[in-house]
Amino acid sequence: MLRIVDKDLALELPRGHHQHVLLAQLPNRLELTESSFRIVEPQQQWQRVRSVLELVAEGEGNLKKLHFLFLPESILPAAYLDEALALIESRFRSNTVTVFGVEHVPLARYRELLQRFALDNAEALASVQDDLDAGDVEQVAVNWCVIAVKEHDGRLRVFLEAKSHPFVGEETVDPFHDLYRGKVFPLFRCHPTCFNFMTLICLDYVYRDLYSSNISVLIERANELFFETRQRLDLLAVIECNPKPEHAAFRDVVNGFYGEYLSYTPGVRDCVTIFGNTSAESRCEGLRGEQRFGRSAVIIHKNHKLEKVHLAEFATDDYDGLPVCRLRFGEQTRLYYFNLPLFHELDPRTTRVPLKIHSIFRPTRDGGWLRMGGEELVQDLAKG
User: Fold this and answer.
1) CB-based burial label for 128 (10 Å; 0-12, 13-18, 19+)
2) Strands 141-150 and 96-106
3) Which of 65, 104, 284, 299 lies in disulfide reach of 36, CB 3.0 to 4.6 Å?
4) Contact 191, 227 (CB under 8 A)
5) Where along the chain do its domains lie?
């Protein structure tokens, strides 16, 4: 199970106003090597990721208001980590959080990165060092992500998080194909504006067994936060490179998380859950069976109510009868720019919609991004 550690951030988010999120549903192509998955054509992949970072840095229109940028699991080639961080530090606006998954690296290399950013990763570094001291695991692969935070004063802080629950393609009886299991997960607490969020990687969201699970630990910590400080977990972001995004395991946990007779408790009652997957163009060579990427989604409790829509690029539903409202995107390569709902429930008499999509961007032939017009968005889904 995960161990949650609090991390304080100096982020001045707008009080009494919603935050803005850019969710990047990008294509990815991975191939299985002797010990891990690696990105095919890493330079091309870096250019794709860089195009999104450049778009945010330029900040045309209301992109200047962006607070959170989420990219998928395993999307950034490890060799380009420094370039990505340098671009974020030099060109991103203050009060922004960028989350991106990074290509697998050996545990020894992951420790080096933790040592480099030791000030913000002391607990994770100590955990990794204990594991290295306990066995011959230097070459075990790590599936990990970076949470890069540019604080109010322009300071860049870099947090690393290792996935704890490999998916079936990463989990075998052969120890040479096993992946490292991360144990330390940060809970980010923003000040002076109180806003709390966490990031998980794909299957870290689902139950490991009937008696212990990451998500139950997360819910318990969120409830402690509420009873001690009257604050909540406001945002849970799950980044994925998932060939089966509609798997029943995810629906079961959503039901437990928001179900009124299960875990619909004060700490997570108003939490917004974001699932950010790769697009349908993704391929994961070495996996068996059908691969269906895409379908990123945003989920809130049903009390926030969303208008029923069914359009070419997105639709809303109740996730097959769950006590939630789900905004479900399509499968194509897209950037989705939307706002998070406010933490409180709306007056039942209001006609205000708590979650709005501000823009959707599609890729251009020259490697850039184009904001889609209204006619492209309102086509009937069956024809789109």
Assistant:
1) buried
2) antiparallel
3) 104
4) no
5) 3-377
Closest CA to 76 of 103, 53, 56: 103
Q: Which of 121, 177, 178 is nearest to 147 (CA)?
A: 121
- Hey, what are 239's tokens? 């980044």
Q: What is the CATH code for 3-377?
A: 3.60.110.10
Going residue by residue through the chain, which has 384 residues, state the pLDDT in tens, using 9 for 90 and above.
Answer: 689 999 999 999 888 778 999 999 999 999 888 777 899 999 999 999 999 999 999 998 889 999 999 999 999 999 999 999 999 999 999 999 999 999 999 999 999 999 999 999 999 999 999 999 998 888 889 999 999 999 999 999 999 999 997 765 666 666 556 788 999 999 999 999 899 999 999 989 987 666 678 888 999 999 999 999 999 999 999 999 988 888 888 998 998 888 865 556 888 988 999 999 999 999 988 776 678 899 999 999 888 888 889 988 999 999 999 999 999 999 999 999 999 987 655 566 666 678 889 999 999 999 999 999 866 666 544 443
Contact 173, 167 (CB under 8 A): no
**Residue partners of 350: CB distance under 8 A and separation at least 6:** none
d(CA 279, CA 312): 15
Which two structure tokens, joined as six digits, stand for 17?
A: 């106003």
Tokens linked to 287: 């996996």
**Per-residue three-class SS string for 98-161:** EEEEEEEEEHHHHHHHHHHCHHHCHHHHHHHHHHHHHCCCCCCEEEEEEEEEECCCCCEEEEEE
